[in-house]
Structures are given as structure tokens and as C-alpha cells.
Amino acid sequence: MADKKKQFAVIGLGRFGGSVCKELYRMGHQVLAIDIREQKVTEFAQHSTHSVIADSTDEKALQSLGIRNFEYVIVAIGDNIQSSILTTLVLKEMEVENVWVKAQNAYHHKVLEKIGADRIIHPEHDMGIRIAQHLTSEKIVDYIELSDEYSIVELLATNKVHNRSIIDLDVRARFGCTILAVKHGEEINVSPLPDDMIYVNDVLIVIGHKRDLKRFEEEGM
Ligand code: ATP
Ligand code: ATP
Ligand code: CA
């Protein structure tokens, strides 16, 4: 594999942090797994490069783990908002470059933003939006919200667009959306050309204003 392996540390091995840790490790990355509970650390020994018991609010403990050398640190402490905030603060003071934090609510989010968290994640909220999108459309395969206005959707090509070229469908002019890629079985055609064909059951990855994407999904597909 060409891309360089990154170094990650995951603090808090609950359901969210645990999944992040396992998946990174499965992908072949270096992952340091940290939790205050011994039972969690034992459980994750086989799903991480190293797993250690530590209280992440303790600056000295983080220092002795060499946490500042990690490119990414994920703070996935759930219910204890105070510990999450303090951990994030310590990590940013230690100048860890990328600190991604799971937020519990709007207040937590606001504080994390102020103290310099590089990315704030709301798994339940984001997953709720995705599930709602899946439930209400047969055509939507996946959904990524970019902002309040823009998103990326994966749409399943229907018979309506079968055997037609992108230029023929005229998606950009008619709907103001851009097709970023087309998945045909296992193949992915990235930045497709106007002459490229679309077949039923292809997956179109489309970016645009939510209003335009909805129109394309309802009228164009
Ligand atoms: P999730 O919502 O992701 O499922 P959870 O609700 O199962 O998480 P929480 O108790 O909210 O679990 O916290 C996640 C993990 O963070 C726990 O395993 C907990 O032991 C750990 N944790 C909490 N405080 C600290 C701390 N100060 N240092 C290290 N780990 C901590
Ligand atoms: P989430 O993990 O999605 O953020 P939560 O942890 O905030 O959810 P939960 O206690 O898990 O909240 O429950 C979610 C919602 O379901 C709450 O609003 C709660 O009032 C409601 N709820 C729980 N039990 C029942 C029940 N038996 N009947 C109807 N509603 C219920
Ligand atoms: Ca939780």
C-alpha cells in the first residue's frame, strides 16, 4: 500500500471509541488504546497495537505515553463531559495536532470548539440523520452532510437512467448537482466524463445543495 501509515491514539473504549480503535487497527494502522478501566484495556489488547490503563485528565500520564507524537488523538469519553473537556484541553496544550472529540450535547460542543478541538463528532445525531435518509428513500444508499446546505449522496441508478450518458441526463444544468463518481459493481469511475454511461443499479455519488439533490433524486432518477 502506497499511503503512509498514520499513528492514532484512542482515549475511551466505549462503543464509539471501541469501534474507531478496532477499525483503525484492522486497516493496519498503529493504534494506542487508552482507558481508565482495566477491563476495557484487557479487552482491547487484541484490537490495538498497545493498550494501556491511564486517566487521560492526568497530564503526566499522557506525557509518559508520548501522546504528543501521535498524529491523531480521538477523545471518545462519553458520559463524563468534564473529563472529555479536560482531556481535550490538555491535549491541545501539549500541541497535539489533530484532536477529534465525541460531543455529548450542544453545550459540550460549544466548549470543545472554544478550547480548540479540531473536529467534533456527534455519532448519534449523525447516524440518526443517515438512518432517516435510508428509511425514506429506496434510492439513497448513503448520505454525508457537508454543511447545513450542502451534502454528498450515493444514489442507486433506476431504470429511468439506464443506458444513458451523463451528458444525456444533463444533471448539472437541470439539477445543479455534480456527479463525482459512478460505482459499477466493484469498479469505481472517479470524475466520470460526459460520455460515460450509467446503468441500472450503478451507484452515483453526487454533490450539491440539499434542495437540488432532493429534486434530482425525485425527478431525475
Ligand atoms: P459510548 O457512548 O461511545 O458507547 P459509553 O457510554 O459506553 O461510550 P462512557 O462511560 O461514556 O462509555 O465512556 C467511554 C469510555 O471512556 C469508558 O470505557 C470509560 O472507562 C472511558 N473513560 C472515562 N473517563 C476516562 C478518563 N478520564 N481517562 C480514560 N478513559 C476514560
Ligand atoms: P441516545 O443514545 O440516542 O442519545 P439517550 O441516551 O439520550 O438516547 P435513552 O434513555 O437511551 O436516551 O432513550 C431515548 C429516548 O427514548 C428518551 O427520550 C426516553 O424518554 C425514551 N424512552 C425510553 N424508554 C421508553 C419507553 N419504554 N417508551 C417510550 N419511550 C421511551
Ligand atoms: Ca453513551
From TrEMBL:
Pfam families: TrkA_C, TrkA_N. Gene3D superfamilies: NAD(P)-binding Rossmann-like Domain, Regulator of K+ conductance, C-terminal domain. It comes from the Bacteria. Residues 5-121 form the RCK N-terminal domain. Residues 138-221 form the RCK C-terminal domain. GO terms for molecular function: monoatomic cation transmembrane transporter activity. InterPro entries: NAD(P)-bd_dom_sf (IPR036291), RCK_C (IPR006037), RCK_C_sf (IPR036721), RCK_N (IPR003148), Trk_Ktr_HKT_K-transport (IPR050721). SUPFAM superfamilies: NAD(P)-binding Rossmann-fold domains, TrkA C-terminal domain-like. Coiled coil: none annotated. One of its GO terms (biological process) is potassium ion transport. This is TrkA family potassium uptake protein. The lineage of its organism: Bacteria, Bacillati, Bacillota, Bacilli, Bacillales.
